[in-house]
Design brief:
100 residues, 3 helices, 70% helix
């Protein structure tokens, strides 16, 4: 295809050096557009992959935290900074190990 375009441009009266430069410029432009598109597609896929992993991890952490903390009032005081399972009549908390 390159030779046909080159032959057609030469038949139109273009100088051989100008034809070579124009074809080179067109090739470089096409390569640049392809690289630009590939770069942004890679960025997009990376962001989607990281977002998906983050969403999956955060939902797993929320489920695990709900299992550990319990429901209702237990969850409220277990999140307190001064929480100690000895002071409350709660279910055993796996975050505190009783060596008895």
């Amino acid at each position: 295809m390159d030779r046909r375009v080159q032959g057609w441009l030469l038949a139109q009266g273009w100088a051989p050096n100008v034809v070579k430069m124009v074809l080179l410029l067109v090739k470089l432009t096409v390569i640049g557009i392809l690289l630009y598109t590939a770069f942004w597609l890679t960025v997009l896929f990376t962001v989607v992959a990281i977002s998906g992993a983050w969403a999956a991890r955060s939902s797993e952490q929320a489920d695990a935290e709900e299992c550990v903390l319990g429901d209702g009032n237990q969850a409220d005081h277990k999140q307190s900074v001064f929480y100690d399972p000895i002071n409350y009549d709660d279910d055993p908390d796996p975050r505190f190990h009783d060596e008895r």
